[in-house]
Fold this protein.
Amino acid sequence: MRPLDDRDRRILDLLRRDARMPLKTLAAQVGLARSTLRERLTRLESEGVIRGYRVDVADDEGRVSAYLLVRLRKTPSPGLVDALRGIAEVRHCSSVAGDIDLIVLLEAGTVERVNAVRDEIAGHPDVADLTTSIVLRREIA
C-alpha cells in the first residue's frame, strides 16, 4: 500500500462523516474530477484502506470505544499521525501537553478489533508506550 496523500486523507475524512455523500459532491469538495475521484476510491478499496461503507447508528449499540494514551519516543511524529489517518477505526487524535503525547479515540465493532488496532499502533517505531482505556459508558454524548 502506498502512503496516503492529502487528498486521500480528505476523501476519507469526508466519507467518515457521510459515507453516502454523492460522488459529484465528494469530487467537488476535494477538487477532483468525478472520474479521478472514482479511480482513487477504487484504489483505496483495493488496497484495503476503505474496507466498506456503513451506517452509523446513533445509539452506537455493539460498538466498542477505547482511548489510547500514547507516549512517543520523539515529538513531533508526523509519520505516526499519517499512519493514524489511514486507520478507519481512528475517530480522533489530539496532541496534548504533559506525560502523554497523543490521545487517540478508537471505535470498532469488537474488542478483538480494538486490540488489533492497538497492537498495530503500539508497533509503530515512534511509540514508546501505549495505555488502553476501554469506554464503559458515555456519560455525556
